[in-house]
Amino acid sequence: MIFTSFHTLVIGAGIVGCSIAHSLAERGIKDIAILERERVGSGSTSASLGGFRHQFMEPIFVEMTKEGVKFLEKLPEIAQINPFIKKDGYVLLASTQQTKQALKQMLVMLKGLEVKAEWLESETLSQMFPFYRFDEVLGGTFCAEDEHALTSSLLQAYLKRSKEFGVKLFEHTEVTALLTQNGRVKGVLTNRGEFQAKNVVIACGAYSGELGKRFGIEIPVYPVPRKVIVVKGAESIPRNIPLIVDLDLKLALGIEGNGVLIALNESPSEATFECKFDFGYDEKTIHLALLRIPALFDAKVLYSVCGLYEMTPDTYPIISSIPPYEGLFCCAGFCGHGFMHSRAAGELMAELITGSRPHLDIKKFCIERFTHPSETRKDIVI
């Protein structure tokens, strides 16, 4: 079967892919389709905790978060969807002088971008969060503007509005090959037949690198499994605490539903699509958590959530046209920040596809950077 006359095919119906289709449709572009090999939001999006963080080292990431928050707050009006925003904030802790210096430099940059964040000494932190041990902590940053939202609400908003604009969704449609002619994209081949289009966007998260291989193109996006453990029984931990991230201990603590989430910012050494963690991983996570939060000693594990981070070598995403084919694009490699940056990513990709000038400087996101590498500072990945 042949599906003809599409302007753009977006491969991947996660939060980023749906945002791209939505941004294109908002601009009046007709004949857009999203191709998804499984179900909408069934990949990394389904495991997202829904955070919106302003505390990055790189200004463009801060701007992308701000755009996401602005769009999120409009959902009740433009999509009649409640995103259930929880303005709980983020605390980033430093236990070494190097991390402390980096966080203080970040605060200077955030002030210039009109983001309200502050440095708190360990004594102040102890008063705010008496359940947490700060004896080895030098201090930390707190941003009350950081928040969380219901992941499905944003995904539903993109889908609802996209369908209203005429975007077509094809689930259970696996792309197997790229079709080209005279150096230009012609469409894709799938298990359901041929889809013809002027533009093709690779936006399938951690699987983007694998799809690139099918197309004969190297896209340096690889999968890294992550795990969050949710426990219950630590009644001394308030329900309104911010997400506390101990950067040097690589530990995160927050509230998730009726439980307390703990996560280790550490993954298996090799890239893999297998979300399997041995008992030793859980044991290490809980051991490190007890060093900082003794109240967890009698807590019981409720459940755990595993998902894939879509990583790049420099922790910057790829939002770029992809040579050598005209009409081929990639929007992937968000390193766990796809949810919070999906709105900006969709807008930037729509600008590239339509030939408009990107509203943010995305030179650091182009794929050519891996051919001619330069010194790029890695950002905070949580």
TrEMBL record:
One of its GO terms (cellular component) is cytoplasm. Residues 9-352 form the FAD dependent oxidoreductase domain. InterPro entries: FAD-dep_OxRdtase, FAD/NAD-bd_sf. It holds the Pfam family DAO. Keywords: Oxidoreductase. GO terms for molecular function: oxidoreductase activity. SUPFAM superfamilies: FAD/NAD(P)-binding domain. Gene3D superfamilies: D-Amino Acid Oxidase, subunit A, domain 2, FAD/NAD(P)-binding domain. It comes from the Archaea. This is FAD dependent oxidoreductase domain-containing protein.
